UniProtKB/TrEMBL annotation, chains A, B:
It comes from Neotamlana laminarinivorans. InterPro entries: Amidase_Cbmase, Bact_exopeptidase_dim_dom, Peptidase_M20, Peptidase_M20_dimer. Homodimer. Zn(2+) 1 binds at residues 76, 87, 186. Zn(2+) 2 binds at residues 87, 122, 379. The keyword Protease does not apply. This is M20 family metallo-hydrolase. NCBIfam families: hydantase, PRK09290.1-5.
Amino acid sequence: MNRIDKELQKLASFSATPNPSVTRIVYSEEDMEARAYFITLCENIGLKVRVDVIGNTFARWEGSQPDLAPVGTGSHIDAIPESGQYDGTVGVFGGLEAIRVLKESGYSPKRSIEILLFTSEEPTRFGIGCLGSRMLSGQLTPENAEKLIDTENNSLKQNLERVNFNTDLSSVKLPKNYYNAFVELHIEQGPILEAENLDIGIVTMIAAPSSLGVQIVGQGGHAGCVLMPKRKDAGCAAAEIALAVESIAQNSASDNTVATTGIFNIKPGAVNSIPKEAYLEIDLRDTFIETRDKALNDVQDKIKEISNRRGVTSNVKLLNCDPPAICAENLVNTVENVTKNLGYSYKKMISHAYHDSLFMAQICPTTMIFIPCRDGLSHHPDEYSSPEQIHKGVQTLALSLKALSE
Amino acid sequence: MNRIDKELQKLASFSATPNPSVTRIVYSEEDMEARAYFITLCENIGLKVRVDVIGNTFARWEGSQPDLAPVGTGSHIDAIPESGQYDGTVGVFGGLEAIRVLKESGYSPKRSIEILLFTSEEPTRFGIGCLGSRMLSGQLTPENAEKLIDTENNSLKQNLERVNFNTDLSSVKLPKNYYNAFVELHIEQGPILEAENLDIGIVTMIAAPSSLGVQIVGQGGHAGCVLMPKRKDAGCAAAEIALAVESIAQNSASDNTVATTGIFNIKPGAVNSIPKEAYLEIDLRDTFIETRDKALNDVQDKIKEISNRRGVTSNVKLLNCDPPAICAENLVNTVENVTKNLGYSYKKMISHAYHDSLFMAQICPTTMIFIPCRDGLSHHPDEYSSPEQIHKGVQTLALSLKALSE
């Protein structure tokens, strides 16, 4: 087994659920162990490691001209409950492997090359994705970050205290153009490369993501005793909203509108009790901001209509609503040349998924390299990219980092 | 404050959630503390207490002819998550108060009078209601009871070991006609008595309850990357089922058909992940077995249709499906005479809620006494019956027990 495949396997063992599923929530014991493992591997090859106060981790291969803005690469290692082994991790450990390959080839970069492990790309704990890159890019201010509350009702600062990080958030933001270029390697998390039998995707644009939290309050009561016409069942209202969300995405003018009700909780949650409260989180994305925003408005209108008709109250919170990112043309061209020279098949494509690169693109030239994954599956224990697919991604990344650091 | 009102307030303090809500799951610390409190009160007035191996608790006031079949009364003290202070508890502590009132009046019964505290009337822990009375009546055999698994994946026996009960289940079942008569005092859990400004309901029939567990398996994936036509979203399938359940009850030929999806869980339960699994529990009741069974069949047909159309698999389990109970005419007449003599307003009525009396009716003559509760609310922190309403219920119970034990 190759070095990186072994490391990814070892990394998967840091999980709150048994493999093949992986559950690694930011700041959990598993996350902290996985971070320590990554740092050790970086230090083993002489990289200088810096960890910022929220846990974003920079592993630097010093260039011959260390004052020049470095070239960055990296991704995340946190994993949503019962997901897979490759989302994010391939970009972090692939960055490390790319540096090892370049070192072993005798190459010495002019610009420094940095691997960046982003904190909490997944929204599991704080209900907001890309916590680390949002703060690095300044899109999330320290003041607003302090207001974040996790699923166990602890603040970000309380989490940082628990894991012994410093809690002064003002030092996280990077200066504009801190990186001369940033390239993130990632599995596609979609079916296109596999279906078209391609080795590499070069990302030209990242879709516009948004999410809503919806709190619904109806009227509880005993399931046997309140006749149907008297009910204000918060669970049924929530069910109707979830179906409306699905239908609005299905009927959007853009084929790329996708919408998901990924969180659906009811209270009290007993078989003989009418649900008195429900909480939903809805994810809505598109490659076009116009159709994304129309769908977002339609969902909010529909929530109002359903709530009024059913006599329940609903409180909608826009959890995030980010613009799409356009990738840097010169980086796309660099990666394309590298891919051609390696003889790999490729296509330029749009990322439908949300990535830290969406926020890095706000402060420096950015692109992404995609590799295929089986059946397009991600956020699932069956998520899989083959050693060969990973190898081709790492080669493409290594030679792109080389070209950009010369 | 009256003795019983103080005791009910004290009882409410044994709760896993802050008052006014009450959460007291069977075999939890709170449940065990509440049981100990009840037993102490019984022993204080000289009742002989026997606890069977699953925790059904018999507190006996010995009659002058102790060989005669006793008269029974009682109910439950377990409470579903975030419910109220009166469901069940009024029947247990009302039974105790009734005996105290009779004792203080100088009465001495011929037949013994027993208060019965039933174990786990609520289905919260084991997914099945009336555990104690099902086993007392022999409707649940020791063999089937051994197969019960709770929400934390522990068997009934493992629970009994934890709380230091004996685990030989064969001794629980009572002989047929162990009681000469059984009368349960309970809040109505519905709006009728309050709306008609009546003091007492005398129950002639208990509705036929049933419940289903539905496991749905679809296809997970990243919420951003799987386009809408490719999805097999288990959460949306579950939402459609919940709405079908509501609609089938609304459109039943019987006005008394009620159906509730009280449990609605999805996995993995992350905002950016398509639900790959869902689990529902559905409660369906009616006063007429024909329309109940038709609705139950319609729900199952609809689950199949929705699952096939959406390409998800569903596995439906009938958790319980009990026949209605007809109350004993002579007991109904006795309670009616007592109520008339007390000058209380009353009506004969059907119980839409599920009670331990449903199962006691299988082994002995049984009826129930209802008192009004505010807004018909139950299984809710706002559940409330006034001291005066409780007093009238206790008086009716006391004189009924007297009449039946003479």
